[in-house]
Write a structure and sequence with these properties.
mainly alpha; 80% helix
């Protein structure tokens, strides 16, 4: 079990809550959890500590939103995402923590800018075609990004928005996508030594907070403007990403 200060515990609890919220449709909040864990546990190691929390949130999200998933689009993105996970695992195996921190920061910053652009101009990605090559390209990139940084939520959300899916279909599609991909990632993280007994025990303490965040997100999604909510949280994520880069 890691020895954390009171402030670090508060940040970790907030990150776990954000992980749950992100699975209920507020995908930008997942970046906040990624940044918090990277700063506390180290950029490389944090991916393994955070992944079991995401899987716990995925289980809950699938249970709540499973009927809204669009499997026609999942079939386009899941196979290349699996390939991307393998590529991402090879990247992690060959990079040390000092080099990984700025890489993670650039990934988060790039995704944050993309998400903020969607908040500011909702139709900016509206002309993205529905073709299979686009689905394969974004799926591959999402697989690499989620393996390296647990930060592909906004990327797949952008794809779902670009192809015009309604809000609840986006949430249901994201729930199944990341439930399958995160389970696929887990053995790679174990093999790389990123998930181990101590990290799992730590994650078990935080699972109730993740579920609380998921339930809160389910209640919030129909009651507050998501654009405003995402924009505020993404501003903090961008600041933290710059800290990782610098």
């Amino acid at each position: 079990m890691p020895a954390l200060s009171l402030l670090e515990w508060l940040l970790v609890l907030a990150a776990a809550f954000c992980a749950g919220l992100s699975k209920a449709g507020f995908s930008g909040l997942g970046l906040v959890g990624v940044v918090v864990f990277a700063n506390i546990f180290g950029a490389r190691e944090s991916t393994g500590v955070f992944l079991p929390l995401l899987i716990a949130a995925d289980v809950g999200a699938v249970g709540i939103f499973r009927q809204h998933a669009r499997w026609d689009h999942l079939k386009k993105t899941l196979p290349p995402a699996g390939v991307g996970v393998v590529i991402g695992a090879l990247v992690i195996a060959r990079i040390d923590n000092d080099a990984f921190r700025p890489l993670l920061g650039w990934i988060i910053l790039g995704l944050t800018v993309m998400q903020l652009a969607r908040v500011r101009w909702p139709e900016i990605y509206g002309d993205v075609p529905h073709s299979a090559p686009v689905g394969w390209s974004l799926g591959l990139l999402a697989g690499v990004t989620t393996m390296v940084a647990n930060a592909a939520g906004p990327l797949i959300a952008l794809y779902c928005v670009a192809i015009g899916l309604p809000k609840y279909e986006i949430v249901g599609t994201l729930a199944w996508f990341f439930f399958i991909i995160n389970l696929f990632k887990a053995p790679f993280s174990v093999g790389l030594g990123l998930i181990h007994g101590s990290s799992i025990l730590f994650d078990l303490l935080l699972v109730p907070v993740v579920i609380l965040g998921l339930l809160a997100g389910r209640w919030l999604i129909g009651r507050i403007p998501q654009r405003t909510f995402d924009a505020t949280m993404l501003a903090f994520a961008a600041a933290a990403a710059l800290r990782l880069i610098v």
